[in-house]
Amino acid sequence: MHDSTILKWRNFLKESILEEEMLAEGRLQDTKKKHPNLAKIGMIDYLSGADPSGNNKYLQWSAKQLEQSSLSDVEYAARSVSLAVAEFHKYSQRLQKKDINQYRSYLDIMSDVSAIKNILTNKEKRRKEKEKMSGESSVVYESDNYFVVRPDTPEASCYFGRNTKWCISSTESQNYFEEYTEKGKVFYMVRSDKEADKDSRHKKIALVYGMNGLEEAYDVIDHEMSLRRLPEIFGDEYNAIIKATDDFTVEHPPDESRVAEWIEETRRIVERYNERMSYTTVLGRVQDQGGGDLYIEGGAEIKFPLKLDAEEWKKFAELNVQTTNLIAEAVMEEIAMYGNDWADISDYYTQPALWRRQEINPGESGDGGVIELRSGINTQRFEGIYDVDSFEAFCMEVESRVDDQYDEYFEPIFKRVLVREGILTGGAFEQLYSAIESDEFESDIWNLEVGGDEIDADIDVDHLYFVKGLLNLEISKELDFDMEDVLKIVKRTPFRHYVTDRIKHVAGSKGGWPQTYLYLSKEGMTGANTGDPYIDYKMSIDRDNVSTDKEDDDVEAFKTIIEKIDTSEKFKDAVEVGFINFVEKELYPARGVHVRQQKMKFPRPENSYNESLVKNWKKYLKG
Question: What distance in Å separates the CA atoms of residue 72 and residue 218, rounded to the nearest whole number?
Answer without folding.
Answer: 45
